Amino acid sequence: MAAEDLPSEFDVVILGTGLAESVVAAACSRVGQRVLHLDRNSYYAANWASFTFNGLLTWIQQHHEESQPEEVQDWSSLLEEGEELIYLSYSDSTSISNLQQTADSEGVEPTADLPRPSAIQGQSEASRKKISYAQLVKEGRQFNIDLVSKLMFSRGSLVDLLIKSNVSRYAEFKNVTRILTYRHGNVEQVPCSRADVFASRQLSVVEKRKLMRFLTSCLEETEEQQGEMNIVFSLFLCDQQLGDNLEHFLLHSIAMVTEDTPTEVGLASTRHFLRCLGRYGNTPFLFPVYGLGEIPQCFCRMSAVFGGVYCLRHSVRCLLVDKDNRCKAVIDSRGQRISCSHFVVDSSFSLMNFVSSCLPPQVSMVTVPPIAAGFPVVMMVELCSSTMTCLPGTYLVHLTCQSVGSAFDDLSPVVTKMFHTPETDDQETRPSVLWCLYFNMADGLDVEVEGHNLPSNVYLCSGPDGHLGHDHAIRQAQLIFQKILPEEDFCPPAPNPEDVLYDGESLLPTGGGGGDNSGWGEKGEETKENPQTEE
User: Fold this and answer.
1) Residue spans with biased composition (Basic and acidic residues) (predicted)?
2) DSSP E strand boundaries for 307-463
3) 286: nearest Cα among 397, 464, 160, 390
4) Which residues are 337's β-sheet partners?
């Protein structure tokens, strides 16, 4: 929408199109609120975004350039009696740091049939071909590269919300087909479902019995577990006499926690993993086709369907706050005063007055335990071209961890161990790295969104957190919505298109909102609507 066409009054103004902000926008529009959703960028999703390869190179260049401080203009002429100005400052430079990229001139697929995270070692010689960096640039539109690497738990809050709201109709998903772990220099498949355990050739019969007994007891929450909540999870596993193999699988690939994690947290993570198994495949995870950046855009699309107004490359310069410490209006980047009842903003903006093989292509998740003392656990997600995130014949691999030092210091030793790089000379034994980017991103869990002396109707949304799932962002969006509209349902099901009558500019649902799609069915249940998933 053109900036000069913006109406002068909305119920909710939202600045930033990250996941939490986009969910709030969809939820508010769905119950009839007038929503204005702005983003200073030319793309959706902020730090949740997905880029083509060339788009990512542009993003890197923009972050390397020194940003010029925005000129502070005098907007006092737009003040009404009893109001004061609070200027908004963009400070996203603090959320991305230590950018470093490397590129190899050309790569060739490995010839040795060694255990590793890619699934292409079974290709015939005729199908092998070199892929150059120049080809990556030329075919850059075939890539969709996420800034943040996450997977969707099949029974997580995001999947439940996608189904409840009918937003799942706007996207397609792929199953993560296998869970892997890096151990003793090899990549091994982790047996996690009942079928995997019994079919595994890695485990002895005794180990299979022990693992099944332990996983069953985890789901039942026994008294024995309650008595050992005061020790760390690694010691708890040791007390179960499971053996090194099973302890490694459970700690790093099923619970996905560190050795010093409390037992209560480790068991809760294990239960969540197990309860997500079997809903859509033999692992607990889904991944959105075209990348994670699709999800915020899906919620934006729902908001727009119900009247939300969208404007990219458009921002808010300041807030107008009354004597009761409520935001009465905002002034946008073109100097227009826009009245609003509530204002939601990405935390990257600060308020100046307030400081505080023959095998089919696979989608794989790999856990890499600390390679040495002082190094973090690394989570690796490998995406094949069928996820529409990379060029056919290549894989897109995300490595993430909790920062100890710079991203290069933390992750490059793992890259060197598992891939061929320009610094190594064993090109025929490991997959070749064509291009590599390292950067640190601020953890959204470390961003304090409460406790600021903000106007009572202004709400902050933090960016992506360091966890694998999306629970933090969805919980944050739900809390903000409940503060804005405590009596309204959060993201009720959108009506099916055939149930909507268009009366001028309004949308009039003719039925009961398209049925009750509040969840995908458990095993044995009838499911009214399923996400579009592929194996």
Assistant:
1) 522-535
2) 309-312, 316-321, 327-332, 337-339, 342-346, 349-351, 364-368, 378-383, 396-400, 435-441, 458-461
3) 160
4) 331
Measure CA 207 to chain center: 34
**Between 75 and 207, where is the model more confident?**
207
Q: What pLDDT digit, counting tens, does each position of 44-60 carry? A: 999 999 999 999 999 99
Query: Cα 18 to chain center, whole Å?
Result: 10
Mind listing the pLDDT tens digit for each residue in 125-164? 444 567 888 899 999 999 999 999 999 999 999 999 999 9
Q: Does domain 3-63+74-95+292-356+444-494 have CATH number 3.50.50.60?
A: yes
Of the CATH numbers 3.40.190.10, 3.40.50.1000, 1.10.405.10, 1.10.1510.10, which one belongs to the domain with range 194-276?
A: 1.10.405.10
CB 337 within 8 A of CB 7: no
Buried b (16+ CB within 10 A) or exposed e, 296-305: bbbbbbbbbb
Assess contact for 157 and 401: CB atoms under 8 A.
no
User: Poorest-confidence range of 386-395, 397-406, 445-454, 487-496?
Assistant: 445-454
Phi-psi region of 524 (alpha: psi -120 to 50; beta: other; left: phi over 0): left
Q: Tell me, yes or no, if the pTM score tops 0.90.
A: no
Long-range contacts (CB closer than 8 Å, 24 or more residues apart) made by 181-189: 181/248, 181/249, 181/252, 181/253, 181/366, 181/367, 181/368, 181/369, 182/366, 182/367, 182/368, 182/369, 182/418, 183/248, 183/369, 185/417, 186/115, 187/115, 187/116, 187/117, 187/366, 187/418, 188/115
Range from 101-105, 124-128, 163-167, 493-497 that averages highest in pLDDT: 163-167
Spatial contact of 19 and 45, defined as CB atoms under 8 Å apart: yes
User: What does residue 227 show for φ and ψ, rounded to 5 degrees?
Assistant: -80, -10
Strands 364-368 and 178-183: parallel
Residue 504 · residue 489 · CB < 8 Å: no
Give the per-residue pLDDT at 222.
Answer: 72
